[in-house]
Specification:
Distance between the termini: 17 Å
Order of helices and strands: HHHHHHHHHHHHHHHHHEEHHH
Structural class: mainly alpha
């Protein structure tokens, strides 16, 4: 049901305040992206500093994902207990600690600990920022505002790519000495302390989610927030509506709410959420984000050019997300997912074919013959565009809005946990898979999952465009 049907007076909506809230909340997305992407240009430094083999690199890169899975699972439940904003502030503190500790790590064990701490923040921000945004924005524009989260994730990734490139360029390489005698790769981690501190400070100016406040019996505070957002009359109506949606089954949210009391089975809406979360990772997108530089160097690119290619992918990703912001509330979530699945399946298959032609020269250097290097580069970037115009932002939009009020925290906890476990499986396995069975077979595997995701969306995903959160059924 749209806001117009519900009688929301658009003239009373405080768009400036809503925009400010969204900007602050999505700094968490920026940190999510930066903390995930900074590892991309540091792997040579990690190998040299900690004497790592392929498995060791995979474990150090994937350590953040362990924390992310725990953070995502815990944040959904914690947000129901202490509030959305407080969880985001906790995540900001974790980002700050992780940045300082990762850059200073004297051993692989300390580095892994630092990345797990950062992962806790990433996991928390990944699930709480979208749900917070969905709970403070009108249904008619909720999709585009929630999509800003993905723009900020990609902006964070691109920011990390740019910072890594600049530091490596000016130092003379990622392992070369830079400021104060420390190698450039350590500064790549330390720089992220700046946006982490900004995020923590900015969170103090935004209000708590009115839906959380009503759930805690703090109706007067919720009314104050909603009045500032939508005006007095809408605030009164909205508090009553939220209260009514909770009254039908009002008890402290718990994981067992995810079981349908009538059938005794897991609610179908949870399977849809888990499927969306897992398929977003099984298409292999984070191989590009975590291993982009290593991937392109593996097929003959120089370190400098590989880092520049990362930046190009980041810029194209942002452009694709802007397309989604303009269309998600017009054509809907499900059509974008279907288009993205089909596009990714085709482009990944092309990348896989191009990698299958790789040859090794007499000096051991690997290259793609003829125009296959260009074909791989173009297809890989088209794949990134399809992902970020569809599954990248839309999955987070849907997880933030698809669950009913009573099970939103629990549904996000389980779906977010599944998302990060799938992320870890793909990311940690890639270095070994790239060697055997090889890049070509690995990318054909990602193409298969992209094709499978098309049929999953057709069968399991329901459109949520324009529907109020109180109307979501589980």
């Amino acid at each position: 049901m749209t806001d117009n049907v519900r009688g929301l007076d658009a003239a009373r909506v405080n768009h400036g305040f809503i925009a400010a809230i969204v900007v602050v909340a999505t700094i968490g997305g920026f940190m999510f992206g930066y903390d995930s992407g900074v590892i991309n240009g540091t792997q040579k430094g990690l190998e040299a500093a900690f004497d790592l083999g392929r498995l060791g690199v995979g474990i150090n890169v994937g350590a953040i994902l362990v924390g992310s899975a725990i953070g995502a699972f815990g944040a959904g439940r914690l947000a129901d207990a202490i509030g959305r904003r407080n969880v985001m502030m906790l995540a900001a503190g974790l980002f700050l600690v992780s940045a300082l500790l990762a850059g200073a790590a004297s051993s692989s064990a300390i580095f892994i600990l630092a990345r797990i701490i950062g992962g806790l923040g990433v996991g928390a921000a990944s699930v709480i920022s979208p749900v917070y945004i969905s709970e403070v924005t009108p249904a008619s524009i909720r999709g585009r505002l929630s999509s800003v989260q993905q723009v900020m994730i990609i902006t964070g990734l691109t920011g990390a790519f740019v910072a890594n490139f600049a530091l490596a360029r000016y130092a003379g390489g990622s392992t070369a000495e830079f400021w104060l005698g420390f190698p450039a790769w350590r500064w790549m981690f330390w720089l992220q302390a700046i946006p982490a501190a900004v995020y923590f400070a900015a969170l103090s100016i935004i209000p708590e989610s009115p839906r959380f406040l009503v759930a805690k019996g703090r109706d007067a505070e919720a009314h104050t927030v909603l009045t500032k957002l939508f005006g007095e009359a809408e605030a009164t109506r909205k508090v009553a509506e939220i209260r009514a949606s909770l009254a039908a089954d009002h008890h402290k949210p718990k994981l067992s709410d995810l079981i349908d009391k009538t059938t005794g089975k897991i609610r179908p809406i949870l399977w849809a959420g888990i499927g969306l979360a897992v398929f977003q990772q099984l298409v292999g997108i984070n191989v590009v984000f975590y291993y982009g530089a290593t991937l392109w160097e593996a097929v003959g690119f120089s370190e400098d050019y590989a880092l520049q290619t990362n930046i190009l992918s980041g810029v194209l990703s942002i452009a694709a997300c802007l397309f989604t912001i303009a269309t998600v509330d017009r054509i809907g979530r499900k059509p974008l997912l279907l288009i993205g699945s089909a596009g990714m399946a085709v482009t990944l298959a092309i990348v896989a074919y191009a990698f299958s032609t790789a040859v090794t020269g007499a000096n051991g250097a690997v290259s793609l013959p003829g125009n296959n290097g260009l074909i791989a580069l173009v297809a890989a970037n088209l794949y990134v565009i399809f992902f970020n115009a569809s599954w990248g932002p839309v999955m987070w939009v849907m997880l933030g809005e698809m669950f009913p009020n009573q099970i939103r925290g629990s549904g996000l906890a389980v779906s977010g946990f599944a998302q990060w476990i799938a992320n870890a499986a793909i990311s940690v396995s890639f270095p070994a898979l790239a060697v055997s069975p090889g890049l070509s077979v690995t990318y054909f595997g990602y193409a298969f999952f992209a094709a499978l995701s098309f049929f999953f969306v057709r069968a399991m995903v329901n459109e949520t465009r324009g529907r109020e959160l109180e109307d979501m059924a589980g």
